[in-house]
Amino acid sequence: MIKRLAVLTLIALIGLMALGCGSESNQSDNKDLKVWKFAHEEVNGSVQDKYAAKVKEIIEEKSNREITVEVYPVGQLGDGTNQVELLQNGAIELAINNPGAVGTIVPESNIFSLHFLLPIDMEKTREVLNTSKAIDKLNDIYYANNMKVLDWFPEGHMMWTGNKAIRTPEDFRGFKIRTMASPITIACYEAYGANPTPIPYMEVYSSLQLKMIDGQVNPLFAIEEMKFYEVQDYLMLSKQEVFVGTFVANRNFWDSLSKEEQALIEEASLEANAYIFDVQEKLNSDRLETIRNKSDIEIIELTDEERKAFREASKPVYEKYKKEYGSQAEEILNLLQKDIDAIL
Ligand code: 6CS
Prior knowledge:
Bound molecules: ligand 6CS
Number of strands: 11
Oligomer: single chain
C-alpha cells in the first residue's frame, strides 16, 4: 500500500513537471516541441548515465532540437523498481532498467540473475545479447508488460565486497549480503548458504557503514562511484554474473510515435550500444585502479577452481528458474544456452 502510494505520488509529481514543460512549448509558440523523460538507475557519471547522455545527444541533434530528452538519475524518480512501474504506467517515456529490478515484475527476466550463465569474455556476452533468439522472446514478454525493449548491453562483471574474505560457498554461511530484489538472485545466494537482503541502492553505503549488512555485490565502476570500498575490508574479483542494462520505452508511447521518430530512437540505441561497451570496459578497469590507490582494501582474485565450487553450488537455481517460471522461461534458457555454446 505504502509502495503504491509512493508510485502514485511520483506520477503526480511527474504530471506537474510535464505541465511545466508544456508551458515552455507554448511560450515558444512551437506546438511540435516534445519532451521525453528518460530515467535510469545510477548516479551521474555512471555507465547508465553515459548511455542516457549519448541517446539524448543523438535524439536532440538529429531532431533539430524539436525533441528534448530530460535525463533523471537514480533517486530523482525513486529507486529501480519504482522506475520500472513509472515506465509501465507511462509517467516516463524512456528508461534504463536491469533484470535485478524487473525480476519481481517480469519473471522470465530473472534469467540474467542466474550465476555462471553469460560468457566471462565480455565481447562474447555482448554478441550473445545482440544476436540471441532468446532476446527476441524476452522482448515479446517485456512488450506484453508495457515495455518496448530497444537494447540489452553489459555493464561489467558483478563482484563481491565484504567485511570478510569469500573464497568458498562455505565462507558465505550466515553472511548478510545486500542484493537487488530479483528472486533468482536471492535464490543464488541462499544456495551458497548466505543471507541475501534486498535494500534500495541508495541505502547500501549507510547499511554497510552501520554494519547492518556484511557485504554487497555490484560491478567495479559502481563499487567505486558509490564508495562501497571505503566501508569494506575485502573486494573479491568473483565474476559470477554480468550486470545487464536494458534500454526501454513505454509501449503506448512507442506505438504512438511516427516511423521517423521510432527510427531515430533505434538509431540512437544502436550507436549507444557500441559506445557504451568501450565506456564500461574503461570505467571498470580505471576504477579498480582508483580503489587500489585510494584504499587499503584487500583485493582477492578468485581462481578458476574457486569459481567452479560456486558454479556447482548455483546449479539447482537453474532448475528453480525453469520450474517456477514455466515452459516459456525454460525455452528462453535453452535457446540462450545454445547460442552461448555456439559462441564459446
Ligand atoms: O545494485 C543496484 O541496485 C544497482 N547497481 C547498479 C550498478 N546499477 C543500478 C542498480 O540499481
